[in-house]
């Protein structure tokens, strides 16, 4: 498997920065899913079904900049099309509730900015990333030192590193 620098910038989807423009209840009435619209800077909003409802309030998510993966195959989740995925860190403390936090985008980012491995150069991604391959990528994504990483390499934008909330411990997964 290619290293992240080439993986996120050419083989897989380089995550991009998007702005959440709306957050609504999922039409199914799900207690876990938000139905979001996200501006990724290309003039077209993406619809995203995000399993964040029990962890992130509508108010906290609306207007927020987030890291999203765009070229996963669009899929219907609970009957609604999801055209991207919001990246979040997750940790299950022993005997505790699952802790989920949306990745923290650096100040100065704009919708459409790329998320890369530190030291890499962006390349044109394929139109669609296969879900099997993306699952392999997710296995290498984790938190260390308050920064989102892939195989220990910091994920960055042109404005700085992509971070996580202070309560997210080292070793927490990202997906």
UniProtKB/TrEMBL annotation:
SUPFAM superfamilies: Nucleic acid-binding proteins (SSF50249). One of its GO terms (molecular function) is tRNA binding. InterPro entries: NA-bd_OB-fold (IPR012340), tRNA-bd_dom (IPR002547), Tyrosine-tRNA_ligase_regulator (IPR051270). The keyword Acetylation does not apply. PROSITE patterns: TRBD. It comes from the Eukaryota. Keywords: RNA-binding, tRNA-binding. Pfam families: tRNA_bind. Residues 9-116 form the TRNA-binding domain. PANTHER family: TRNA-AMINOACYLATION COFACTOR ARC1 FAMILY MEMBER, TRNA-BINDING DOMAIN-CONTAINING PROTEIN. This is tRNA-binding domain-containing protein.
């Amino acid at each position: 498997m290619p290293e992240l620098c080439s993986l996120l910038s050419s083989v897989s989807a380089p995550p991009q920065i998007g702005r959440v423009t709306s957050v609504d209840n999922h039409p199914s009435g799900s207690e876990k899913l938000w139905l979001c619209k996200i501006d990724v800077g290309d003039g077209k909003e993406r619809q995203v079904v995000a399993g964040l409802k029990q962890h992130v309030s509508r108010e906290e998510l609306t207007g927020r900049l987030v890291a999203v993966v765009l070229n996963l195959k669009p899929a219907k989740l609970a009957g609604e099309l999801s055209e991207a995925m919001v990246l979040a860190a997750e940790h299950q403390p022993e005997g505790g509730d699952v802790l989920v936090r949306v990745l923290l985008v650096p100040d100065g980012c704009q919708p459409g900015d790329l998320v890369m491995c530190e030291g890499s150069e962006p390349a044109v991604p394929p139109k669609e990333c296969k879900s099997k391959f993306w699952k392999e990528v997710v296995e290498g994504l984790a938190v260390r030192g308050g920064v989102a990483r892939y195989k220990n390499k910091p994920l960055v934008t042109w404005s700085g590193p992509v971070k996580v909330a202070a309560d997210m411990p080292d070793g927490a997964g990202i997906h």
